[in-house]
Design brief:
The chain has helices at about 15-20, 35-40, 55-65, 80-90, 100-105, 110-135, 180-200, 240-245, 265-280, 300-310, 340-345, 355-365; strands spanning about 1-5, 25-30, 70, 90-95, 140-145, 160-165, 165-170, 200-210, 210, 250-255, 260-265, 285-290, 295-300, 320. With about 375 residues, the protein is of the alpha/beta class. It has one domain: NAD(P)-binding Rossmann-like Domain (Rossmann fold). About 45% of the residues are buried. α8 (about 240-245) runs parallel beside α10 (about 300-310) and α10 (about 300-310) crosses α12.
Length: about 375
């Protein structure tokens, strides 16, 4: 298939581009380079050194003989997007191209407005460009489990059957997002649902959990191909932060009680989920939702796992509970369905001690690159 990956230079997009290219698909990367600019803005970095996109693409071509086409531009620029779609005529449009950090969206008014404008307008442009140029193209949109929030009932995959005053209907599951970023994802979902219903577009909304891990088979082929590992208080995840803190002898900083529970999946499962969705496309007019995660953990669960592995590797680390910078429930009920991708063939990589140890050893390799002042939260809401 001809596949465009928007945000193909990012943490999820880059390994997905390599994986799909290796499977024989004709892959084009669309990216505006903003993720690299945000490191400069925040005085941050990836723990792993990241080559330029040009170097990455050239390395992949030299190793495999496969060409990754690149289109440098912004989804909010409709002329650019229109030109790209006319040139590629994709069968699948994988949409990773958004500002993905809740803390970044909550820095101040300007960052909230940017996040909503970038994400919502970019997605609207994708909808209209596909409607006008390649209406049979399958949109695979990266959503987030954070759209649902933490309701006191089981979370279904996108929809819920409701009985009310003697009548019954299947309706979108209620959304309770916890940041301006998560709100932008809810708006995306509503716009895509409307586009499928009104214009017959094919849409798969992947409500992804928190992604952990670093390597895929493809990114391990050469150091130039290595993926990002973010650990700072803005773009880093709790698990990454704990691993880096353990490597440098810092207490593992758990926000509040640590009972915040979320869905998680390995980066290797992310790329496989995209492939599964592409190989089993939505029907015309269908807006389908897959909850894309494989396991549930609390923040404290993760801290204890990292503490155990680091101790086995010779690092004695304590767990410290610090003030939670976020307005959120610290203990809550959390149970979410995630069966559809399994039914379509996903064989999950679970968070075993072996996998966690492998990530930890990579962190040890690069720990001299850690910017210590960036690990603790500075943004509160």
């Amino acid at each position: 298939m001809k596949i465009i990956i928007a945000g193909g230079d990012g943490f999820c997009g880059w390994p997905t581009a390599l994986y799909l290219s290796k499977q024989g698909h004709d892959v084009s990367i669309l990216d505006n380079g903003l993720r690299r600019e945000w490191d400069k803005e925040l005085g941050s970095n990836s723990l792993t050194p990241i080559a330029s996109l040009e170097e990455r693409v050239a390395c992949w071509r030299n190793l495999t003989g496969e060409t990754l086409h690149t289109f440098i531009g912004d989804l909010t620029d409709y002329t650019f997007l229109n030109h790209t779609l006319n040139q590629v005529r994709p069968d699948v449009f994988v949409h990773f191209g958004e500002q993905r950090s809740a803390p970044y969206s909550m820095i101040d008014r300007e960052h909230a407005v940017f996040t909503q404008t970038n994400n919502v307008v970019g997605t609207l442009n994708v909808i209209y460009a596909i409607k006008e140029i390649v209406p049979d193209c399958h949109i695979i949109k990266l959503g987030t489990m954070g759209e649902y929030g933490t309701p006191n009932i089981d979370i279904e995959e996108g929809y819920i059957k409701i009985q009310h005053k003697g009548r019954e209907d299947v309706l979108p599951f209620p959304k309770q997002p916890g940041s301006m970023y998560h709100l932008s994802k809810v708006h995306d979902s509503h716009n895509l649902m409307f586009a499928a219903r009104a214009w017959g577009l094919r849409v798969t909304d992947l409500n992804q959990g928190i992604v952990y891990g670093l390597h895929t088979d493809e990114t391990k082929l050469d150091p130039i191909l290595v993926n990002r590992l973010d650990y700072d208080g803005v773009f880093g995840t709790a698990l990454n932060r704990f691993l880096i803190q353990a490597a440098i002898g810092h207490d593992l900083t758990v926000y509040g009680e640590g009972g915040q529970t979320r869905g998680f999946l390995n980066i290797a499962d992310t790329v496989r989920c995209i492939e599964i969705a592409a190989l089993h496309p939505a029907d015309p007019g269908e807006f389908r939702v897959f909850n894309q995660f494989t396991q549930e953990f609390s923040v404290l669960d993760l801290a204890k796992k990292v503490q155990k592995i680091s101790k086995e590797e010779g690092y004695q680390i304590d767990i410290a509970h610090i003030e939670n910078p976020r307005f959120e429930k610290e203990t809550h009920y959390y149970k979410a369905s995630h069966t559809k991708l399994i039914e379509l063939g996903l064989s999950p990589h679970l968070l075993t001690d072996e996998i966690l140890r492998g990530i930890f050893r990579t962190v040890i390799q690069y720990k001299d690159r850690v910017l210590r002042d960036n690990m603790l939260p500075k943004i509160k809401w």
